[in-house]
Amino acid sequence: MQEEVENRTVNLAISTTKLTARGILRIALKGLAYIRRKSQESAMKKPIGKQTIQELISQNQGVTNIDIAQTDLKGFEKYARKYGVDYAITKDKSVLPPKYLVFFKARDTDAMTAAFNAYSAEILTRNKRPSVLKTLHKLMDAVRDIPAKVATREKQREQSR
User: Fold this and answer.
1) Do the strands 87-92 and 63-68 form a parallel or antiparallel pair, or are they unpaired?
2) Helix residue spans in 19-151 (DSSP H)
3) Which DSSP state fits 156?
4) Domains of the chain, first to last
C-alpha cells in the first residue's frame, strides 16, 4: 500500500515536469473555450415560470398584469406552473391592505386564462365542500344529547368462614 502511494506521487512529479509551455497554453485555451461555451448556453436559456419583473420584461414580448388576492398565492402558482405561464408576482404597498399584482407575458394570455379558470374552479369547489370541522362539531353535539346509560354496579362481598 505504501509503495503504491509513493509510485503515484512520483508519477505525478514526473508528469508535471513533462509539461511544456505549449501544453500549458493548450490547457488554458481549452478552459477558456469551455467557459465561453457555458456562458453562451446560459445566455440562450430563457427563464421559465416564476421570474423577476426585469427578466420578464427583458424577453421583449409585452407584459400584462392582473390583481390577485394574497390569501392563496401558492394555489395560483401551482396552476401557473401547470400551464407553463411565465409570471412575476409583486406586492403593491401603496394600497392598504397591500395588493398583489401578477405580471405575465402578453403571448401567454391563453395559457393565463386557462390557469385562472382552473384556479377559480378549484376555489369554487373548495367553497362548496362542507367543512369537516363543522360536521364534526354537529356530530359531537348529537353524541352529547344522547342520554347516557345509567351504569350501576353493585358489588357484594360475602365473607364465609
Assistant:
1) unpaired
2) 21-44, 53-57, 73-82, 109-128, 132-145
3) -
4) 53-141 (3.30.1370)
End-to-end distance of the chain based on CA atoms, in angstroms?
A: 89
Do residues 88 and 50 lie in contact, with contact meaning Cβ atoms separated by under 8 Å?
yes
Q: Which of 105, 107, 122, 94 is nearest to 66 (CA)?
A: 105
What does each of the 161 residues of the chain score in pLDDT, given as a tens digit? 667 666 665 554 546 667 788 878 888 888 889 888 888 877 666 667 788 888 877 777 778 777 776 666 777 788 888 888 888 888 888 888 878 888 887 667 788 788 888 888 888 888 888 888 999 999 999 988 887 776 677 777 777 76
**Cis status, amide bond into 98, omega within 30 of 0:** no
Quickly tell me which residue has 420584461 as its cell.
57
CA 81 → CA 55, 59, 108, 112, distances in Å? 17, 18, 12, 10
Note if the pTM is more than 0.90.
Answer: no
Q: Enter the C-alpha cell of residue 35.
A: 467557459
| Alpha-carbon gap, residue 137 to 139, rounded angstroms | 5
